[in-house]
Write a structure and sequence with these properties.
Largest sheet: 8 strands, antiparallel
Strand content: 15-25%
Radius of gyration: 31 Å
Distance between the termini: 46 Å
Shape: elongated
Number of helices: 14
Helix content: 40-55%
Amino acid sequence: PPDGSGMTPALINYWITIHPPVIFLGFGTLTVLYAFAISALLGKSTTDWASLIRPWAISSATLLGVGLCMGGLWAYETLGWGGFWAWDPVENTSFVPWLWTVMLIHGLFVQISRNKWSGFNIFLAATSLITFVYGTFLTRSGVYGDQSVHSFAQMDPQAEKILVWILGVFAGGFALLYLTRLKWLKSIAPPQAETSEGLLNRETSYTTTIILLMGLAIGAGIGMSVPLINTLQGQAPKAVEEAVYNRTLVYLFIPTVLAMAIGPYLSWKTGTWKTLASKLANALTLSFLILAGLIFWLKFGVSNAYKLPPDDSVFAPFVGTIKTVPWILTLSFLCVFGIVANFLRIVQLGKRSKGGVGGLVTHIGVIVTMLGLILSRGLQQKVQTVVQAGTPGVALGYLIELESTQGKNFLKRGNTVDFRFKGPNGESFLVKPELYYTFDNQGEPKGTIHPYIKMHPTHDIYVAVYPMAFDAGDPVTLKPGETKEVFEGVKISYKNMIREGEAGMTGTKFLADLEVTTTEGTFPVKPGMQLNGGGPPNYLSGELPGFTATMEKMDAKDKSVTIQLFYKDPLYPLDVYYKPFTILVWLGTGIMLIGGFWAAWYRRKNLRTPVTETESNTVVEETPENSNTNAAFSAS
């Protein structure tokens, strides 16, 4: 049409109005972190540097993290595959800068409280922006091709040169300046003797957290770079499969969540295992009680149609293949422990450390989100069924009937196909997934789907309808006297070829004398073709209950024919999912947003009091008033 065909159908969703501005605002704030890093190196001064940059770093991490979650919510509501995250290459180009910023925040706490890691934090502040520019290059250079659901068109060559130039200037300029300041950075580092001894202290906790985050960032960074590596080697670009990430980066999940749970209870002074155990005893007890409640719900509170088969298994780190339910319960207990531990720490801190409370709230948000992802994916049930007018499908204990399609326009965006779900206990509700068709550049119809999600407090019923199917099995070629099965319950018997009229004359018909056996009986059918002068023949269909038969081609020598059956009423293939506790993903995202900006706001208020050079270089012991707990996202 004169005004264009509009946005890509998959992008017509309110999350696309919200998600890109939020995450790009997060990307934009990375320039502030880069500017702080360059400023520190040019001026050879870290006076107040960490305190000034910290609220910016927390804000950047908050915007990037929530922006990533919004992208996952878009995928869940739009793409129809029932998930939030698939380690897509473009997802990782946003994920890596977020991890980098989270590492910076944890490093800043050590710098502010112990006057350490100045050089490392300057490196993280600058390279967080560089990782984003590199990811932008991967996204826009065309190396991803069709390897990503976010695949973008290749940039104009001149624009790509500008982007490469920007990447070179940002990365090369910082590297050169950083190398020229190494001597100064070493001079401001504290003596090695001041390093905390032992394991059970806050500095070790931050160090461990940063190592884990670095491992996640490097792993995801290598994965997203594989298509570029393939291209440089002259090979076709190929994205790393989701299963590869799940079998490698999962090793970092357990220690990361444990660090988020235990870290807030550690002091800058090295403690003992006995003291730590006493602090965590209540959290462990409550976590076991909550886990018992979850097991009780799985045993007695879930319909039999939703329960996992006992032989389901999944890969688990260190142990290999394990039964799904015990593994999911193990991960769930770990997450519950992290949530409870941080909540009890918030109760202990109260109003004494409002900035620290914001960080703990953020921890809870991250872990709640991960718990939702684990339960909704690990305990999900998926059933594929087919529904036809007058022939209902069955999935997850529901009888699924097609409502009337009268008045539906399948060429109109937003067109829905309505299905009536009837449960065993009299439950009945209407499901309206979207299905409509657009046309590609060759004029071929292309189906677009948007799922329908029926939300309950404890689970979602997630339904995706796929393009209508008219073909009743594959075409079959038969010789006179042959019988072949098209699909289960349907057979075609070919008796002979019938000619009506003179050979080669316009109007002459060639008919295949068939008998088609279905579940309703055996029916004679005579599909064929009629000669049309010098033009292509007219194809004549044969009708029988529920089907139409056509002759695709014939061989005049051996009188063989190729027959295709079509449904009179189209089939609607459905994917029906049971997704438990997806509400936790939404809830966790909201908690992360609140905690992140809470932490950033109260760290900002601390800047009202000027800090002298002497004060900024003073080692401060922990008190309830200056306790620095983790104030940013930790990766999962």
